[in-house]
Structure formats: structure tokens, C-alpha cells
Protein: Beta-xylanase
Amino acid sequence: ADGLNTRAVAAGKEYFGSATDNGELTDTAYVTGLSNTADFGQITPGNAMKWDTIEPSRGTFSYTKGDAIVALAQKNGQKVRCHTLVWYSQLPSWVKTGGFDNATLISILKNHITEEVTHFKGQCLHWDVANEALNEDGTYRSNVFYDTIGPAYLPIAFATAALADPDAKLYYNDYNIESAGAKSTAAQNIVKLVQSYGAKIDGVGMQAHFIVGSTPSQAAQTTNINAFVALGVEVAITELDIRTTTPATAAAVTQQAKDYAATVGACKAVAKCVGFTIWDYTDKYSWIPSVFSGQGAALPWDADLVKKAEVYDAILNAW
Ligand code: XIL
Structure:
């Protein structure tokens, strides 16, 4: 059947997908939509594989939520982007404020990655090994890993993940790296850093949490994707949503449809842009209103699980 994933695959991409979360999986109408592989060939767990869920206390691993999402994807025949191993947020306080020295924190980091990647071995098309390591000006974001280990925490993380699952594609993932600028350059430098250590990095994820009307142009996004590809890595659009002031005006929805099409067009234009994920598919479960007050209506399906025809069709026809 025709749909977002069908069109993306016809354009040579590996998938069009959506994020989801465990609390949503009891909503049967929602799950029916998510499981429609004409639209979604891939799922990303929105929270289930983050450190605070997986290893809430040192050495205690909890995979129930991650397993539930992988099981749904496998039942549907969908790929999984596993998200995320090393991030400053949703990181339990035992790691964040544990006061560990360099050698101890390296061993905690390696143990976490080895345990989690081994658990999901063979089930993850991609792993977001490191998430949001950068500030807006391109400097490294201060976090317990950077502050204790230095930038080498990144190649250490990638090398450790590669050992545990040699077949998963290993990604660096961040936001505001979707067009040229200091942060995109810094993300390219992370690729080079990991490569310079002889560690494997396969891809860069552009989160693409955009705002209606101030989204980078298709040409700017295409040029930027090509700059990453030139380093020998692939690219995926990993968390696209395009928010606006709520309630959305008709004009905003029209602009939003164009903005979605621009990112699809950029990914379509570059063979090594391999996949495309929206950060859930319905406004019913979008993270936006809880974080950006007064903003929302960011996804192609409304809060009643009804397709916004203008936005959906713009995505469909941009492939
Ligand atoms: C968000 C989830 O969607 C929310 O449910 C959670 O409360 C906070 O995290 N960048 C990322 C994602 O890489 O992990 C974030 O997901 C959204 C921003």
C-alpha cells in the first residue's frame, strides 16, 4: 500500500519511521497507526533505552521497556533505531554526581555500553551511541563524561559499542546541526575525532526539532548533509517535528507542510541520507507542549489521530 514508508523506500531509503513510548502502547488505535508499515517501517524508543531506564542503579539493568518496543517492531516487521547510550540527560544521579575518577568512570561507561548493546545485539539497525555532546557555539557541552574523561569519552563509547554489536550502525546524534554553522562543524569534528582514534562511526543523526517558518531551506539542509557524507559517514533524520504556536493557524499548517517537504527533499537528494524518523506521529503524544510552553501541533497526525491531509500529503509527495 502507498504511504510514507512505501514512498521513502521507493526513493531508495531504508525506512520512514516514528518514535514511540511504552505508555502509548496501551492505546490500541494509536498502535494500529504505528504498526501500519505502509507509513512506518521503523521505530525509535523515545525513552525506553536511556540510561535512567536501563541502569537506574549501578550494575542493575532493566530491559523490560526496551524489550517491549523491540517486540512490537519485530511483530510488525519494522527496523529499530536504538536510542541512546551516552547522554547528559536522563542520566541517573549515581552517574552524574557519583564523583568517580577518570578510570572508574571509563569502566562504568564501558560496562553500561557493553551490557546494553549486548542485550539488544542483532536487534538495532542503528545505535545512537552519543547524544547532544555539543553546545550551540560548537564547544563540548559540560557533562560528567566530558568533565571527567575529556573528549576521549566519545571514541571510547564508539569503540565499546562496536565490540558489543559489530553489525549495528553507530551514530552520533544532535540537534541544530541541520545546516552549516559552528555546531554542525563541531559535529563533523566529532566524526573526525572518533575516526582518528581508529574507532567505528557509521552515521550522524540530525534530530531536526524545527520551528514552523524558521526551518533551514532544502538547499541548506542538502549541502549540510553532503558535508557529513564527505567524511565517509551516512546520515539519518532522526527526530523530526516542526512546532508552532498553538492552536495552529491555517497559514502555519500550510507553512509546516512546506517545511516538512524541505527536509524530505534534502534527504531524498542525498543517497547516503538513509532514513527518516519523526518524533512520534501524532500530536496526542508529542513531547513538545511539555517542554516548549504554548507550542505544539508539530506532527502530521492531530491529537485525535486524524491525518492532517495537507502535511501528510506534502511529505508523501516530496519523496
Ligand atoms: C524526549 C522524550 O520524547 C520525552 O518523552 C522525554 O521526557 C524527554 O526526552 N532529543 C532527544 C530525545 O534526543 O531523546 C528527546 O526525547 C527529545 C530531544
In short: Residues 171 and 206 are 10 Å apart (CA to CA).
